[in-house]
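[SOLVED] Need 3D model of a two-part complex

Original post:
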Amino acid sequence: MTTVVTPLSSYRNERPYPFCPGCGHSAILDALNEALVRRRADPASVVIVSDIGCSGLSDEYFATSAFHGLHGRSITYATGMKLVRPDLDVIVIMGDGGAGIGGAHLINAARRNIGITLLVMNNLNFGMTGGQHSVTTPTGSFTASTPLGNLERPLDICGTVAVNGAGYVWRGTSFDNDLPDRIAAAMGSDGFALLDIWELCTAYFVRRNQFSRRAIASTLDTLGFATGMIQHRPDIPEYAAAYRAAAAANPPPSAPQPITPTYRASLDRPFTLLLAGAAGGRVRSAGRLLATAAIMSGLYAAQSDDYPVTVRSGHSVTTLSLSPQPVVPAGDEPDAVLLLSQEGAGKLAPLLESLKTPALVLRLPGSATVPTPAKVIILEPPEKPRLSKADRALAGAAAALEILGLFPRQALISAVEAAGRGREQLEIVALGAAMGAAAKA
Amino acid sequence: MVPSDTNPVRRELIDGSTAIVRGALDAGCDFFAGYPITPASGILGMMIRQLPAAGGVAVQGEDEIASIGMCIGAVSAGARAMTATSGPGMSLYSENIGLAVMSEIPLVIVDVQRLGPATGGPTATAQGDTQFVRWGTPGGYPIIALAPASIPDCYHLTARAFEMAERFRCPVFVVADKELGLTLNTVDIGDLKPGAVPPRPSPGSPGPPYLFSPADQVPPLRTFGGGEVVRFTGSSHDERAFITKDPATIDALNRHLAAKIEDHVDVISIVDTDLDPEASTLIVSYGVVAGAVGLAVSRLRHQGRRVSSVVVKSLWPLPEAALTAAAAGVERIVVPELNLGQYRREIERLLPGVEIRGVNRIDGNLIAASEIVEAA
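Solution:
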């Protein structure tokens, strides 16, 4: 989109600042205005994203675009804007409170090196809510919430973002004459630019701690916090640009392959089959092949999988619901259960005990006997070739199909072929079918 | 059923998450941010794989708060955005749901519900967030929530959610559950064909970002980068998005936030009705439970029972007119839910004097048709 840039002689609107006498906020906002003038910014394309607290009022004094959001979350809104419109000049203004509650966002913005400019109005306490301590309150300082002196060590915002990959990191004070230059330079840098600007809260912190401009300098010195330009790394890729480059290089996902019914199923009623095996035993995959084959046979199929959160250990139980009519999930009892391993049999033990007699249980050796009133058929795999753990599910599925006769075996063969499985898998199907035929006889 | 050679049936085996993703993409979704959580992670994964090819952006945030925050920021810069999570993530969305309400940001939020409070049962299904989505943020303002009952519903209602989010400039929830989200089912490809999704109207000549009068009307969304200065805010504000303490202005703002939804329940309402004018029993359901209700209605009618069924697709605001009409003349209403009666209390409030029975499961299993037959 082309926009006509109309730089302003001032980016302030007609509204006077509301801040307390001596508060550093006014000086910082004047410096921001000066930086915008120097950059001849397009007021519509400059978005001031303000946080919460006295600093959160900042956007109201500018003739630019603005977003006033929630406490600590301003970085997240700014990140979304920049990802969608990398051409915007996105400036986040937050206090030390926002840097604390939004600490995770601060670190992650640095880690991503997202191209936004963040001004931290750091007055070492929460001004708007009565002067409570924040993450940057120096140790020993008195605030409304640290009447005996702050026990916590202040967060080194600059050190934290610098070590995590921020492209531009600077620390100074609201009294610095070069503040407009620094803000303009930060806006001109590609990556995540942070300016930690120490200032006075005359309403609270100054009164309670006899704090002053000179005290800012001595506190920084005592803490060993670096000042001035702390990090400038134009070599680190900016995230929104890096995302676009990576996305452009990424091939589009392949289109889904529709299934066209080409076989006839003998099944004329809803039928539920459970496949119960071990995680990592390709139970879901075998279920998917059976479901696809059923759809190829003109049936409707639904598949629901149950496995532990650890994914590769424990049970894996797949429920297949097949029907000539569309399947609705409704928690009905299974008509047949295929037990592939001890893990699956163990998981289904309570169900197996209460199965009604018309149900059929097919059991491969290796799954222990579980008490059940249902009819049990033992499947005997051949001595050779030996059935591997990973092939038991598909062989069992083929055997079950042979015994239950729900739809043609050829449909399962077509499903295996359509899934791009090799000749080995087709051999497993043949082996399973033979195992089923033998058990049926 | 065997199709003819000339018009082959084309089917797919997909889950509800896939249908939600396709519904979003076909509705013009071009931004997604989310955080992994069972059972909603599939949506995140598919969006990350598919959105870049569609010209959009999909990212994983550092947490749920950042994810929905990025979505809100993206919308303010012109995107159509969606996020997806489950109950624990909904908790973390809470404050930003409020921001989307107050700043009038259109946004689609998918809640693939899982069982229980706290971590609960990540892989067990439930409808425990029915009231949580309605009242999930401070202030008590109305939201819109759609509840798919099938995989085609997941597709169409996600697209509708985008349409409603745009029209009403508000967050719209798609309230699914683990069973719908993760269970594969057979769909006819023809059932997932996109309807016409209107493009976002151009706001025209420059104007204020907000309008409170007439209270029920919604001004066009003006976004960053469109050439005009635009402001958004989550604080009580005037029509220019400046913070105000003027009671008359604040009253107009807050009444507008309610009226723009509550005065248009008729166009938001989506219900599937299967009514028998002589019915003595009405079954009211929503979400995945509707499947068992369909089976139960068939069985009851087979037994000669006179029953009606309403499947509510627009969960919030409550489709009062449709429910009241469907309940005319019935002696009892059965409300099966995978919670302890969260929607039943709405029916009790709406229809006092009618016997109302709940069928409730909170063990992670689905309600069986037989349980509904028994209660009816």
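Edit: Chain B is about 35% helix and 20% strand.
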